[in-house]
Write a structure and sequence with these properties.
CATH architecture: 3-Layer(aba) Sandwich
Distance between the termini: 12 Å
Number of domains: 1
Structural class: alpha/beta
CATH class: Alpha Beta
Strand order of the largest sheet: 3-6-2-7-1-9-8
Largest sheet: 7 strands, mixed
Strand content: 15-25%
Number of strands: 9
Radius of gyration: 17 Å
Length: 244
């Protein structure tokens, strides 16, 4: 069952070594990500699964899988916590950023694995993956790595698209309310148009929450949502939230 979740953006700029001169400017965002992960740890899950995009197929990564920021000119390697240095494979960038966030938060509460999902994975498949993760009695927590629109200003990576801000606002409301139905209904075509790379991970969360909320003799209390951060520096929507 799903007992907690943290939603964090996953731009490489979150990593100070990559951000260089922008490191201080983004410290508030990093702080909110730490708070989100602290809240997840307080739920005492048995395992944490990181979910992020950037893969060609649905891909599972074991503990200890490395990720690198050499592509950004930084000789920095990170790993999913809890494994040895012999894990095969390489984390895509969103999951590598998530691994850095876990190291920054000094995560030691549980074993950590990761699930890579293609950015264009259909909603129903995302929801099914979430239900699979939340099946059974294991106390499962999720870290969803992905952000909102990238087109909030003329200088944004995706230029200016007036649909970006209302899209981000609608997602922020769903995250604040722990509304899995609203996340499940996110318009994926619009999400792609405004450059929101968090849409697929958010819908994995929706599926996990939906599975946990299904009536049963041992159904837990509904998850409560809390929106910790909703800003758009550089014209990109960064949202941080917790469910638990």
């Amino acid at each position: 069952m799903l007992v907690a979740a943290a939603v964090c953006p996953a731009p490489p700029l979150l990593v100070p070594d990559v951000a260089a001169g922008a490191a201080a400017e983004l410290e508030a965002l990093r702080g909110h990500c730490r708070r989100a992960l602290d809240a997840v740890a307080e739920a005492r899950p048995d395992r944490l699964v990181v979910v992020g995009g950037g893969t060609a197929d649905v891909t599972r990564y074991p503990q200890g899988t490395p990720g690198s920021f050499r592509g950004f000119g930084v000789p920095l390697t990170v790993r999913l916590p809890g494994g040895d240095d012999g894990a095969a494979g390489t984390l895509p960038t969103p999951l590598a950023v998530a691994a850095w966030l876990l190291a920054d938060a000094r995560w030691s509460a549980t074993p950590v694995t990761a699930l890579g999902v293609p950015d264009d994975l259909p909603a129903e498949r995302c929801l099914a993956l979430g239900e699979e993760l939340a099946a059974g009695p294991t106390r499962t927590a999720l870290l969803l790595a992905g952000g909102g629109s990238n087109c909030r200003t003329l200088k944004a990576p995706g230029y200016l698209d007036e649909r970006g801000e209302p899209f981000d606002e609608s997602v922020a409301r769903a995250l604040a309310a722990a509304d899995h139905r609203a996340l499940a209904a996110v318009d994926r075509e619009l999400a792609s148009a405004v450059g929101a790379d968090g849409a697929a991970p958010w819908q994995v969360l929706a599926g996990a929450a939906r599975r946990t909320a299904q009536p049963s003799g041992t159904a837990p209390a509904p998850l409560a949502g809390r929106l910790l951060h909703h800003e758009a520096p550089y014209g990109v929507g960064y949202l941080v939230a917790t469910w638990g």
